[in-house]
Amino acid sequence: QVQLVESGGGLVQAGGSLRLSCAASGRAVNLYSRAWFRRPPGKEREFVAYISQSGATTAYADSVKGRFTIARDNAANTVSLQMNSLKPEDTAIYYCAARGLDYYASTSSAYDYWGQGTQVTVSS
């Protein structure tokens, strides 16, 4: 059983930066691979970034490559998403997810645990 809680969302101007964090608790939480997804207003949830158990493997959606960076601190049981050069189209609810398999996946159905989400709003 894993519990995930996101934080760090807010309102930012286009071109600015935000850092999201996901705190995890539960049994063997650092054995799970992790990901960030987002749900823009009126749209379905979409993949943003992935990180493996050790942090050695990362993957990003094309829309955020070069701007977003995912990282994990297993000692602190946290995963972060550093978001730079933000655009209005990045506006969404951002969700932290976890899965018990150490393989890359970019679909929501592959993940077993989800946080409640944190709102990111980027103004022009």
Mean pLDDT: 95
Q: What percent strand?
A: over 45%
Query: Whole-number radius of gyration?
Result: 13 Å
| Order of helical and strand elements | EEEEEEEEEEE
Describe the largest sheet: 7 strands, mixed
Amount of helix: under 10%
Choose one word for the global shape: globular
Distance between the termini: 40 Å
Q: What structural class should be given to the helix and strand makeup?
A: mainly beta
How many helix segments?
0
User: Low-confidence spans: pLDDT under 50, at least 5 residues?
Assistant: none
The total of beta strands comes to 11
Task: Provide structural commentary.
It is a single chain. This protein is an all-beta fold. The chain is 0% helix and 51% strand. Strands 2, 4, 5, 6, 9, 10 and 11 form a seven-stranded mixed β-sheet that branches. It is globular and about 40 Å long. The N and C termini lie far apart (40 Å). The mean pLDDT is 95.
List the keywords.
124 residues, 4-stranded antiparallel β-sheet, mainly beta, 7-stranded mixed β-sheet
Write the layout of secondary structure elements.
Elements: E1 2-7, E2 10-13, E3 18-26, E4 33-39, E5 46-51, E6 58-60, E7 68-73, E8 78-83, E9 92-99, E10 113-114, E11 118-123
Parallel strand pairs: 2-11
Antiparallel strand pairs: 1-3, 3-8, 4-5, 4-9, 5-6, 7-8, 9-10, 9-11
